[in-house]
Amino acid sequence: MSLRKRKERESSSSCSSTSLHPQKKASIEPDLDSRRAAVRAWGNQSLAAADPDISEIMEKEKQRQFKGIELIASENFVCKAVLDALGSHLTNKYSEGLPGARYYIGNQYIDQIEKLCWERALAAFSLDPECWGVNVQPYSCTSANFAVYTALLLPKDRIMGLDSPSGGHVSHGYYTPSGKKVSGASIFFESLAYKVNPHTGYIDYEKLEERALDYRPKILICGGSSYPREWDFARFRQIADKCGAVLMCDMAHISGLVAAKECLSPFDYCDIVTSTTHKSLRGPRGGIIFYRKGRKQRKRGISLCQADEGDQYDFEDRINFSVFPSMQGGPHNNHIAALAIALKQVATPEFKAYIQQVKRNAQALASALLRRKCRLVTGGTDNHLLLWDLRNLGLTGKNFEKVCELCQITVNKTPIFGDNGTISPGGVRIGTPAMTTRGCLEGDFETIAEFLLRAAHIASTVHREHGKLQKDFIKGLQSNWDLADLRSRVEAFSTQFAIPALDV
């Protein structure tokens, strides 16, 4: 028999065998329902069931937040609606690009969310959409700042921002005293800082102008992370025009105050404005970029007016391209939806009342500390934060911060201009937004001031008895009765105030 005929016979035999015994094939195939169930078994487990280790740690963090006094100026508590959006199905969708120009299909509803977020962002700050645009995709304000630099600068171009020990942010360019570059802004671009007056703590605008005219930065940056006073945006505009710089404001800390019209607005004078979305704005963690568009503005005294029709801003395409694809991939759609929710709240009378209380609480805390002979940088505050210079008490910010942490009070150490802040910061930064969100009023911040003073007394005593070296200081805090008593009082105080959306 030929080989071809043998193969045809074997094939025919196989087919007839299968048709006569269909149950034999079915028994070989695994059960489809059991396979499907095995694949999907993990999908609907609760957090506690799926990962009890993470669940337990998260519960501990919830208790820490509830039992503690949160005074870090860059922290806040979001509402239930924001948390619901952050933990939603929107995290499942990938959406590289801008609305109407996505790389993937299936983004029609994501586009609606992002466009609504744009509208609410402009409305929250009373901006004309003909004159201002916005990008809501940056993952943080540091990312937003770097996207602006990447859009408008070439490597080694010059930027100029407030010195970090003076209250600026490292994303505006910073070198340590040894010359080390500690941020991408300093690694890829050249930066020269302006500083505060060492005697007053206020920005020295005369020296700022002198340095800017010598240095000629392409971007002049106003805004910082630890500056307790108003920013003179009009003066910055004058200086930027004189040295030919784009004027950019990083309003990360004061964005909530700007929206509520409880401080001067950078939008009247600046070309570009960036911000985080989670500090005084009380939204999810992320960044946002506002940019001028349409006809360019020209100088008329210290204000701006429209220039010739043919002279147009070119920020929009450059910044959008810098955010994606230059700097990031797909946006976090759950964050953008959560931000849209927060921005809707920002435009309400209730939010304005909240920011007014934030400022009243900051004033009350500053007054309480000043009455007790504490030294505050600039002698007080115009906004939501204050800087406490601890050096006259013989304390460092690091050790005082540690005592507060063990007492369930969170503050953060910060350099005071003139100290050796990179080694041992001489003060702490204290903010009122988070505890105001929990419902604290002026009288409550009088109590908080007492807690802080007692923590300072404990730190001074341990310094005196055990020395200032960190290891000796930490050892001296162990089994400290005063520390344990203060912690108990702090917890009793803090647990009177609920945290939004947390079931404790």
From TrEMBL:
UniProt keyword list: One-carbon metabolism, Pyridoxal phosphate, Transferase
GO cellular component: mitochondrion
Record's catalysed reaction(s): (6R)-5,10-methylene-5,6,7,8-tetrahydrofolate + glycine + H2O = (6S)-5,6,7,8-tetrahydrofolate + L-serine
Gene3D superfamilies listed in its UniProt record: Aspartate Aminotransferase, domain 1, Type I PLP-dependent aspartate aminotransferase-like (Major domain)
SUPFAM superfamilies referenced in this protein's UniProt entry, alphabetically: PLP-dependent transferases (SSF53383)
E.C. numbers: 2.1.2.1
Pathway annotation: One-carbon metabolism; tetrahydrofolate interconversion
InterPro entries on file: PyrdxlP-dep_Trfase (IPR015424), PyrdxlP-dep_Trfase_major (IPR015421), PyrdxlP-dep_Trfase_small (IPR015422), Ser_HO-MeTrfase (IPR001085), Ser_HO-MeTrfase-like (IPR049943), Ser_HO-MeTrfase_PLP_BS (IPR019798), SHMT-like_dom (IPR039429)
Molecular function GO terms recorded: glycine hydroxymethyltransferase activity; pyridoxal phosphate binding
Keyword Transferase attributed: yes
Keyword Transferase: yes
Residues covered by region (Disordered): 1-31
Residue ranges of domain Serine hydroxymethyltransferase-like in the record: 48-451
Modified residues (N6-(pyridoxal phosphate)lysine): 279
Cofactors demanded by this protein: pyridoxal 5'-phosphate
Biological process annotations from GO: glycine biosynthetic process from serine; tetrahydrofolate interconversion
UniProt similarity note: Belongs to the SHMT family.
NCBIfam families cross-referenced by the UniProt entry: PRK00011.1 (NF000586)
Function: Catalyzes the interconversion of serine and glycine.
Alphabetical list of PANTHER family matching this protein: SERINE HYDROXYMETHYLTRANSFERASE, SERINE HYDROXYMETHYLTRANSFERASE 7
Protein name: Serine hydroxymethyltransferase
Natural source organism: Spirodela intermedia
